[in-house]
Amino acid sequence: MEELTKLVSNINSFIWGMYCLIPLLCGVGIYFTIRLKFIQVRKFGQAVRMLFGDLSLKGKRADKHGMSSFQSVATAIAAQVGTGNLAGAATAIAMGGPGAIFWMWIAAFFGMATIFSEAVLAQLYRTRDAHGHLTGGPAYYISQGLGSKTLAAFFSVAIIIALGFVGNMVQANSIAGAFYTAFNVPTWVTGIFTFIIAGFIFIGGIRRIASFAEKMVPIMALIYVIGSLTIIFTNLEGVMHALEMIFVGAFDPMAATGGVIGAGIKEAIRYGVARGLFSNEAGMGSTPHAHAVARVKHPAEQGLAAIIGLFIDTFIVVNMTAFVILCTGALDGTTTGIALTQKAFTLGLGTIGNGFVAVCLLFFAFTTIVGWYFFAEQNVKYLVGVRYVSIYRVLVLAFIMAGSFLHVTLVWELADLFNGLMAIPNIIALIGLSKVVGRALEDYEKKFLAGETPEFGELAPVPADIPRYNGVPAQDPALEPKPQHHRRLGGLRNRFRRRPHNAQENDA
């Protein structure tokens, strides 16, 4: 087992290293930033107004016709804001120095253009399943846009394993471990609790997932931000020093920490960019599943909303973790991961700090479980149809339960591996369909905003080369039999309705 873990770890070091995914993901972000003329800067204010104008804790219920834009973004954020925001940021600082946060910002900035493109494509190539529910994601725009069913199937298998199974397994393990450390709650108790609540939400489908996300995400983000700001404001003298450490450490890590962190600029870039991309998921192909089902009039509107989701994940939540660690002086050169975050909050809040982190981790990890379940479910539909969703649901719950009390070092490594593998076909699709994204944005700016009839979206005629709202199904219709709506019972009812009439004829 140790040898297998080491092998997978070595593969991950390459995939997530300086010669594979990091340059690919950053390169795609830079490419779209230039191609879309710095969309994340030009339209940021408009995106904020549009998204939060749709904010409501009692918004219109999600149904087979999709979610509201805010509900979709909340579902995406639910998946983005997870253990990576607590443990990932701490690991980046511990391994790459405070300067890693600067490179995390850079990755997030360019990632905004990437995630805009993912959301637009998800809207353009979405379809409906056999029950009439909207569905979409990279598998759909890979198969329809690129015309590669093989690559789409590879992506679907990778994301089902990465997020639905092993990913949710390690999230459940993080929850159980945090509550055992902070409150001495047995892992099996936490496992049963997580199992029951997750099952309740999963069974409710898109309606319950959207309702959970739109309520829980703002609450959990607010709790964490308030706790973090409390520490930061009580250590205001450390804020300027923290900023100095970040900017100096970006180019000279040894100088920023006085040699406490034995890292060079290469490590700062590597850990900052890698952890940043892992946290915000730009280019990974996960969040498009939520954006695909958003109810918007034009695909570019959801692209702009996606930008704000990434901004909240990195520039608000991750920054809270980073500044708490740096302002409290928790960085010691030895402590890393979630332990470093717990140490920082304990220094800032006293004895309640450890429990505060455990509760926040519960919120963050559990919302990630819900988001990841939903993303993988769309790919189960793509591969085998809606009839097997129930089986997938049971398997996910089993993995959640097992992850609560098993030692999952290997599983963590496998999660990283399949996360990397699913990103590759998505990157290929983004590059191959970049012209489509450009056309959609141009259509939005020149026609939709001007009040003219656009080429894309609900108000447009069906384009010749791109499906719209309920376009051509991506899956084989043979796999998706239409619901029968109780045909046999309906036939019996019709017979009983005709019997009195026949009886009258016989009497005559």
Sheet with the most strands: spatial strand order = 1-2
Distance between the termini: 84 Å
Share of helix, binned: over 70%
Which fold does the CATH topology refer to?
Amino acid/polyamine transporter I
Q: What's the helix-strand series?
A: HHHHHHHEEHHHHHHHHHHHHHHH
Low-confidence residue ranges = 467-493, 501-508
Q: Rg to the nearest angstrom? A: 24 Å
Tell me, briefly, the overall form: globular
List keywords for this structure.
single chain; disordered C terminus; mainly alpha; 74% helix; two-stranded antiparallel sheet; 508 residues; 2 strands; Amino acid/polyamine transporter I
Quickly describe the structure.
This protein is mainly α and 508 residues long. It has 22 helices and 2 strands.
Verbal overview:
The structure is a single chain. The chain has 508 residues and is an all-alpha fold. The chain has one domain: Amino acid/polyamine transporter I (Up-down Bundle), CATH 1.20.1740.10. Helices cover 74% and strands 1% of the residues. The chain has helices spanning 2-15, 21-35, 39-42, 44-52, 69-80, 83-96, 99-124, 138-146, 149-183, 187-203, 205-234, 237-249, 253-257, 265-280, 288-292, 299-328, 337-349, 352-384, 389-405, 409-432, 434-448, 487-507, and strands spanning 127-128, 134-135. The chain has a two-stranded antiparallel sheet with strand order 1-2. β1 (127-128) and β2 (134-135) form a beta hairpin. The longest helix has 35 residues, at 149-183. The chain is globular and about 60 Å long. Residues 467-493 and 501-508 have low confidence and may be disordered.
